[in-house]
Please model this.
Amino acid sequence: DGGITQSPKYLFRKEGQNVTLSCEQNLNHDAMYWYRQDPGQGLRLIYYSQIVNDFQKGDIAEGYSVSREKKESFPLTVTSAQKNPTAFYLCASSIRVQPQHFGDGTRLSIL
Amino acid sequence: KNEVEQSPQNLTAQEGEFITINCSYSVGISALHWLQQHPGGGIVSLFMLSSGKKKHGRLIATINIQEKHSSLHITASHPRDSAVYICAVNSGGSNYKLTFGKGTLLTVNP
Model:
């Protein structure tokens, strides 16, 4: 079955450490997205990519980095510059204006 | 003020009740989406609307473009409908980016 796989489900980060969240899709979608979800707030866009080797900053890109070397993969790195990284992170993909397909998310916490 | 406002924030219903969740937006849009998020966190797309009404099983979504308003209705609600329902819009000329409401937490009691 086609879908989006996010890993790990839970991730812990030490102070000053970079961590990378994985997102893989086998839906053959061109566009991929990373969102952050905090309690009581709507999802906010971190980065998105419309095609391979190209990506754009979303509304809250500071402290994050991404790469899009393959169509199937869009990893997100939470750098030590992100001072409040504790959140639920969701990856999604889509074909142009079609509904986005979401992964099951990664919950990141600080040790 | 958020571009996408949902009401109510929380909703508790008894099994079998008819449920309505509302979404208002303040910008021009190309499409509106209703999403469902279960306690585990994964999100499923329920509807994408640009006009009129759509129905899928016990779920009905409507949109009024002139009034910038959409509703999600659930008929004959069931405890398995308990979830967070999220409204999102494609706006600003972007066919890719979504702006999300904060969600409505629905609890259906048996």
